[in-house]
Amino acid sequence: MLVSASFLSSNNPPEDLKKLNETDVDYIHVDIMDGKFVKNKTMPFSEMKNIYKFTDKRLDVHLMVEQPEKYIPLYAELNTEYITFHLETEDNIEENINLIKKYGIKAGLAIKPNTEVKELLPYLPLLDLILVMSVEPGMGGQKFIEETTKKLEELRELLKEYNIDAVINVDGGINSETKSKCNLSDIIVAGSYIVNADNFQERIDSLR
Ligand code: DX5
Ligand code: ZN
User: Fold this and answer.
1) The pTM is what?
2) Which residues line ligand 1 (CB under 6 A)?
3) How does pLDDT run across 153-199, given as a tens digit for each residue?
């Protein structure tokens, strides 16, 4: 299992990013919130971009924003492997996927807990990654929503049926207990479970 570490719940992002750099974590998951798509707001790019001086890891960017097209060119400048935005943004989905790809970056689409997997269908052939939210987007430290397992099963079936080789990412409330409910995913995102511990590597090992 690949592990992507979110530092949203970190009290000291530069320090924790340095610590994560010493682990074998696969990606740094970057949660971006605009105060519109979700209530909370993360720091502006001008500040955020400095944070990535503290890590050499590839970034897995999760845009929880209303207008992904404003953020894609900025985050494309960093050491970014994936940029994922939400299907619930509704407008210009295909254009935004193509914009990400134009920068040579892999494109992902995320769905909130109440969005059905089949709504992804029109976009599946264009995607490199699908992110299934296992909590409501907006903050770290929430409880894993059990129905996620069923959605992962449906999504796995759909990818098989249409012969799509996009990876599945699952995000929210994941720890050593809930990870067994995410076996059908390729990547799991974990935030508070990792950054609230003293030994990051031990926590990462327990998620693999
Ligand atoms: C939630 C974010 C998640 C979150 C994960 O809106 O998208 O990435 O930070 O944090 P934990 O693992 O604490 O749920
Ligand atoms: Zn996230």
Assistant:
1) 0.98
2) 6, 8-9, 29, 31, 62, 135, 137-142, 171-174, 189-193
3) 999 999 999 999 999 999 999 999 999 999 999 999 999 999 999 99
Pairwise CA distance, residues 156 & 158, whole Å: 5
Instruction: Tell me which of 46-50, 72-76, 98-102 is least confident.
Output: 46-50
Count of CB atoms within 10 A of residue 193's CB?
A: 24
Structure tokens at 161: 């049926």
The contacts of residue 91 (CB under 8 Å, 6+ apart) are none
Report the 10 Å Cβ neighbour count for 201: 15
Judge contact between 4 and 60, C-beta under 8 A: yes
Active-site amino acid positions: 31, 171
Residue 176 half-sphere exposure toward CB, CA atoms < 13 A: 9
Mutational pocket test of ligand 1: of 4, 42, 139, 171, the residue with most ligand atoms within 8 Å of the beta carbon: 171
The one-letter amino acid at 173: G
Q: Fill in the amino acid letter for 109.
A: L
Q: pLDDT tens-digit profile of 82-99? A: 999 999 999 999 999 999
CA-CA distance, 176 to 75, in Å (whole number)? 30
Dihedral sign of CA atoms 186, 192, 193, 198 in order? positive
Q: What is the pLDDT of residue 51?
A: 83
